[in-house]
Amino acid sequence: MAWTKLPNGKYRLDYRVDGKRRYETFRTKAEMLARDLEIKNAKAGGTFTDTRKGGKIRFHVLYEEWVGRIERVGARGARPASPVTVAGYRRIYETHLRGHFENRTLATVTLTVINEWLKSFSTDDARQRAYRQLGRMLQFAVDSGYIATNPARNATINNVPTPSPTREPAALTVTQLQLLAQEVASGGRYTGASHEAYGLLILFAGTTGLRWSEVSGLRVDALTFGADPQVVVRTTLVPVDGRLEFRETTKGRKPRAVPIPGSVAEALEEHVRGIASDSLVFTSPSGAELRSSNFSRRVFQPAVKRCRELDAAFPDMVFHDLRRTAVTLAISAGANVKVVQQIAGHSSAVTTLDVYAQLFADDAQSSARAVDARLRKAVV
Question: What do you get for the CA distance between the two ends of the chain, in Å?
Answer without folding.
Answer: 86
